[in-house]
Amino acid sequence: MSDFITITKLDASRRQLEMSIMMFFLEKDHVCVHTLAAASNEVLQDLLKHYHGKSTESEWLEVIKEDKRDEVRKMMRNPQNYFKHANNDPEGVLRFYYKSTKFIIFQAVEAYSKLTKKLTTKMIIFRAWFYLENPEVLTKDKDKLTLKEISKTINSKDKKQFLDLIPIIESRLLENV
User: Fold this and answer.
1) Contacts of 78 (CB under 8 A, 6+ apart)
2) What contacts 173, CB < 8 A, 6 or more positions away?
3) Could you give the CA distance from residue 36 to residue 101 in angstroms, rounded to a whole number?
4) pLDDT confidence band for 10 (50 / 70 / 90)
5) How far apart are the C-alpha atoms of 61 and 77, rounded to whole Å?
6) What is the spatial distance between Cα 104 and Cα 90, in angstroms, rounded to a whole number?
7) Residues 48, 3: contact at Cβ < 8 Å?
8) Element at 18 (helix H, strand E)
9) Where are the domains of the chain?
10) Using alpha carbons only, what angle is made at residue 116 by residues 55 and 120, rounded to the nearest 5 degrees?
């Protein structure tokens, strides 16, 4: 048995993304969740640029007012860079708005979807939670009505509830194989 594994960039980013989603729903260490999600998102954005010529990050920034784009980009990138580098500010301290991580995870989920034309169960569950928490991002009235119905039975503030859905959905998917 070898001590090595062979892994693609896509598989590595999927693993990072799925672990960040699990830790997010468990409300584990915010820095670790953000770091995993940001690493996954960075690889996925690079893959999108390579295979499709454009990243979801550039699409996402298009909805931001042009004079605010650099500010938003910086707000999203600062924690990611802070957590992995100390060459410019070894004594630095960051005031980290950890709730921004949900946007990094969402962006990575959307990038994964564009690259593979599919989502894992964990990504589907995260996307549902994200839409329930942020209904203003939905553009289709049909989707808004569906979420309104779902929100009657599940509380988006209770992240553990969403985590509990993962094994249920995965077992049902296996039954259909």
Assistant:
1) 94
2) 121
3) 10
4) very high
5) 13
6) 25
7) no
8) helix 9-25
9) 9-175
10) 110
**The two three-digit tokens of residue 145, written as one number:** 């009505």
Cβ count within 10 A of residue 27: 11
CA–CA gap between residue 5 and residue 169 (Å, rounded) = 29
Residues near 21 by beta carbon (within 8 Å), at least 6 away in sequence: 105, 122, 123, 125, 126
Residue given tokens 């979807």 in the structure block: 113
Q: How many residues does the chain have?
A: 177
Task: Report d(CA 160, CA 163) in Å as an integer.
Answer: 5
**Which whole-number Å values give the CA distances from 168 to 6, 92, 119, 129, in the listed order?**
30, 44, 16, 16
Q: Which of 161, 100, 175 is nearest to 129 (CA)?
A: 161
Read off the DSSP letter of residue 115.
Answer: H
User: What's the token pair of residue 172?
Assistant: 């049902």
The DSSP symbol for 67 reads G
**Residue 96, token pair as written in the block:** 């980290």
**pLDDT tens column, 92-147:** 888 888 888 998 999 999 899 999 999 999 998 998 888 888 776 655 555 555 56
